[in-house]
Design goal:
InterPro entries: PspAB-like. This protein is of the alpha+beta class. It contains 5 helices and 6 strands. It has a single domain, classed as 2-Layer Sandwich (Alpha-Beta Plaits), CATH 3.30.70.600.
């Protein structure tokens, strides 16, 4: 960064740290102990779809990699904003294995040159019955290297009280995004 960059307010982008994904299983224990929410066994990676042979090869590599685990089903969805979601559904919840799979999806896309098109990775949690139905996603922002909670309600409303409780519970365990304006909603995501 030079003087002119500083003067014009340009900042150096944060280098993504995919290893943060491996800290989520231990953070999940905190979420479970403090809030009674458990992992759903569903996680997804969101990226801006690319075209061409390299993109097709990266998706084929991801599918082949995820097909190695017969307890995980992979699906590919496109949303109304032009993003693609690669979703992993586990038949038996194994959060460390899910995080390894989501890390592999991110790494495969980044290694194929699509790192700049990666948006986020999200892992789902839910409150078990008979508690009030609550959903939660821990969202990893690829370009920031941080995590934030997203708790959707019906009709595109958020449970901000739950999000703040999760933020307080995870302080010190995960690099929680401090800028609340970056806690963008992911309403139509396949997770949570």
């Amino acid at each position: 960064m030079g003087f002119l960059d500083t003067l014009l307010g340009r900042t150096k982008p944060v280098k993504p740290n995919l290893d943060v994904l491996f800290a989520i299983p231990s953070a999940a224990l905190t979420v479970q102990a403090s809030l009674g929410m458990t992992p759903t066994g569903v996680g997804a990676v969101c990226f801006k779809a690319a075209e061409g042979a390299a993109a097709e090869q990266a998706q084929a590599d991801i599918r082949a990699l995820l097909d190695l685990d017969h307890t995980t089903e992979m699906s590919l969805q496109h949303d109304e904003y032009g993003y693609t979601w690669i979703t992993c559904h586990q038949s038996t919840v194994d959060l460390p294995a899910l995080m390894t799979q989501l890390h592999a999806v991110n790494a495969t896309l980044a290694d194929a040159g699509f790192g700049p098109s990666l948006l986020c990775t999200v892992v789902g949690f839910t409150a078990p019955s008979p508690a009030p139905a609550s959903r939660l996603g821990l969202v990893y922002l690829f370009k920031r290297g941080t995590v934030y909670p997203f708790a959707p309600l019906d009709e595109q409303r958020r449970d901000t009280a739950l999000e703040m409780r999760v933020r307080a519970a995870l302080a010190g365990e995960l690099p929680v995004e401090t800028d609340l304006e970056r806690w963008f909603p992911i309403w139509n995501a396949p997770v949570p």
